[in-house]
Amino acid sequence: MHHARRTAGFTIALAASALLVAGCGDDSDSDSNSVLTTPTMGMTTGAMATTHSEAHDTQRTGAQGTGTPERDETPDETRIPTAGGAEVTVSGDIYDKYMEAGGPTGPLGAPLEPVENAPDNGKYQDFVGGTIYEPEEGEPHIVWGEIRKAWEENGGAAGQLGYPTSDETDIPGGKQSEFSGGTITWVNGQITVTMK
């Protein structure tokens, strides 16, 4: 997941550098008409994410000797505009999971609030369409819909079910999510909670 953040950070920096170089040319040269396209990381709502970094601007050659430069950095935060115009920070593995799910234009939609602490040193962040939970040791997963309601009714991350260990998956007639302490299924409109 961290490689994806480096690649996205490098892509943004490369686009910014290209804009800077393009702006430094001789404006009287009629052959310098070029179009530059910058990546929006799937954000087509007119809202752009702003990546902030504390790392270096050094580049190095890719591991396979392809000559593809990689930034030697890890973005520490990305601010995503909400429907109301405010910006909320989404960062780290939660950001990677959020972008994997489609970012602001995906089913999770815009963030509602910054990351918050969860039981046992975990963390979570709420979005319009669901929540991403990440345990202290483990990967982040999305919990939403009727499965999320049943999970929260059973104590959420602090309950016997614990943290999600999978995203929601399709099963015949419905959906299923795995948790460290059990499984929740939603089949034909009925929820079933099974403890380990």
Keywords:
single chain, 196 residues, alpha+beta, four-stranded antiparallel sheet
Description of the molecule:
This protein has 3 helices and 13 strands, in the order H-E-E-E-E-E-H-E-E-E-E-H-E-E-E-E. With 196 residues, it is of the alpha+beta class. The strands form 4 sheets. It has a 4-stranded antiparallel β-sheet with strand order 6-7-8-9. The longest helix has 22 residues, at 2-23. The protein is globular. Mean pLDDT is 73; it is low at 1-74.
Topology:
Blueprint lengths: L1 H22 L26 E3 L6 E3 L7 E3 L5 E5 L5 E4 L1 H9 L15 E3 L3 E6 L2 E5 L6 E3 L1 H9 L15 E3 L2 E6 L2 E6 L2 E6 L1
Task: Detail the poorly predicted runs.
Answer: 1-74
Ends: how far apart? 30 Å
The global form is: globular
Total DSSP helices: 3
Kindly name the structural category: alpha+beta
Rg: 21 Å
Brief synopsis:
The chain is α+β, with helices and mostly antiparallel strands and 196 residues long. The chain contains 3 helices and 13 strands.
